[in-house]
Automatic annotation (TrEMBL):
It comes from Flavobacterium capsici. This is Sec-independent protein translocase protein TatC. Keywords: Cell membrane, Membrane, Protein transport, Translocation, Transmembrane, Transmembrane helix, Transport. It is a multi-pass membrane protein. The keyword Oxidoreductase does not apply. InterPro entries: TatC (IPR002033). One of its GO terms (biological process) is protein transport by the Tat complex. The keyword Iron does not apply. Part of the twin-arginine translocation (Tat) system that transports large folded proteins containing a characteristic twin-arginine motif in their signal peptide across membranes. It is found in: Cell membrane; Membrane.
Length: 272
């Protein structure tokens, strides 16, 4: 006979830990299952997705080239070659990369389910009206995460690859990138961008808890702008088009977070 779950106000600290443990177990199981699914598409994932930004005909490079030509801009925006090679220097390197890439892909594909499990965990502490918004929370958070992943893959990754591939301190030095370093850069860029796009959702809950206010976000807006511009300057080539393309979506996300915080704050004042 299944054990009946206690009401949240009767649960001890250990009961909450038990719920958290099962959240992690179920989420990990789904990630592994999705990682196994990606195994059957490994050739496409590596050849077309992972190593896509290493080719001059990658969609992002062609897009910026077309934009530059229409604006009458000259320079090295149109990429004809990416002078580097990717090499494996470890005996088990390709095996490890294969496994962890499948797990990373499994995590990305499992993100909506992880959000669902997270909502189930925090749901008992929410008001009845908030519980009814579970589907909205999961759909909105998932869409933001996947938009962030696409932003990281189609903008941050290719611009970073182009920059490091064409940067040279001397003609004597040839770029031969380690496979683990290249894959690590892609994973970091994609997942970090996906999580950054969750900022409006995070701000919503922090505002609900009273830990963040619109005034706080407005006060530190100028610092946020500076940080975004610095990040854009680091991960993109030294041209205005690339830097603006990365900066604008990140600034829009921050401004959207302020708007959400204002909405939550007004509702709290309205409801007393």
């Amino acid at each position: 006979m299944a054990k009946k779950k206690k009401p949240v106000n009767e649960m001890s600290f250990l009961d909450h830990l038990e719920d958290l443990r099962w959240l992690l177990v179920r989420s990990s199981a789904v990630i592994v299952i999705m990682a196994i699914v990606t195994y059957f598409f490994a050739d496409y994932i590596f050849d077309e997705i992972i190593f896509g930004p290493t080719r001059p005909d990658f969609v992002t490079y062609r897009f910026f080239c077309d934009v530059a030509q229409r604006l009458g801009m000259t320079g090295d925006i149109c990429i004809k070659e990416l002078p580097f090679i990717i090499q494996n220097t470890s005996m088990e390197g390709q095996v490890n990369i294969f496994i962890w890439t499948c797990i990373t892909a499994g995590f990305i594909l499992s993100f909506p389910y992880i959000l669902y499990e997270t909502w189930k965990f925090i749901g008992p502490a929410l008001y009845e009206k908030e519980k009814k918004n579970a589907s909205i929370f999961i759909i909105a958070s998932s869409l933001l995460f996947f938009l962030g992943v696409l932003f990281g893959y189609f903008l941050i990754v290719p611009l970073s690859v182009n920059f490091v591939a064409t940067f040279s301190i001397s003609n004597v030095v040839k770029n031969e990138f380690n496979l683990e370093s290249y894959i690590g850069m892609i994973k970091t860029s994609v997942i970090a961008a996906g999580l950054f796009f969750e900022l409006p959702i995070i701000i919503y809950f922090l505002s609900k808890l009273g830990l963040v206010t619109p005034a706080f976000l407005r006060k530190y807006r100028k610092y946020a702008i500076v940080i975004v511009l610095i990040v854009a300057a680091i991960v993109t080539p030294p041209d205005v088009v690339s830097q603006v393309s990365v900066s604008i979506p990140m600034l829009i996300i921050y401004e959207a977070s302020i708007f959400i915080s204002v909405f939550v704050h007004k509702n709290k004042l309205k409801n007393g």
